[in-house]
Request: fold
Amino acid sequence: MWLKLLAGMILFGLIAPILVIIPLSFSSSSFFQFPPSGYSLKWYGVFLDNQEWINAFIRSLYTACLTALLATILGTMAATAVTRINFWGKKAFMAIMVAPMVVPVIIVAIALYYTFAPMHVTNTLSGLVLAHSVLAVPIVFVTVTTGLKGIDRRLELASMGLGSTPLGTFFKVTLPLIRPSILSGALFALITSLDEVVVTIFIAGEKTKTLPVVMWENLRTQIDPTIAVVSTILIAGTIMIFFVQSWIRYQVSKF
Reply:
């Protein structure tokens, strides 16, 4: 009982600062005040009327979707190679795959900038997607690798023993079994892209600012409840994504 109580207190301590943002987004005052002196949808209207915020929000969603797609494909391919093929340098390959999760993000950002700048892909959507994918691929790789190690290898061997090709076995047997892991990796990649700011500052330009970058710039120049509105939208979106993930995993488990 005491362990559960302690765990609950720790979780509440972690979540409480985030929950404070939500009532602040409905504040009627022009500055942060908790508890709010009054409640209004004024700042939601300010957010919807500001074209810079809307453009950054749409750009962030578009970039995150492309990043999730690319990272899921590359991460799944890498995870399949590591778990199903024995090749020279496997340990080094695995270390390189997870390196962006270990190396400080500022170092990754500088390295990406000096790599992308000569190729003229900074301040472009493609460069932004590639940069975010560098951070997202390791997450998909680890998630799918765990899923692949959890399935019975004999099912794949039986499929190939009955005449299926390795590629056919992957799509007909392996892929359905690791679908929840792939989905989880894709959602984490999506959230990673939506939340990324350090790498984006180095790679993005005036025409490719994402929502976190616009939030960061506004925090430097002015602080009003519009930031709380954007944060509340991101919190709601993240919660909705995890609910969708849980629902899909439940549907998959029934089959």
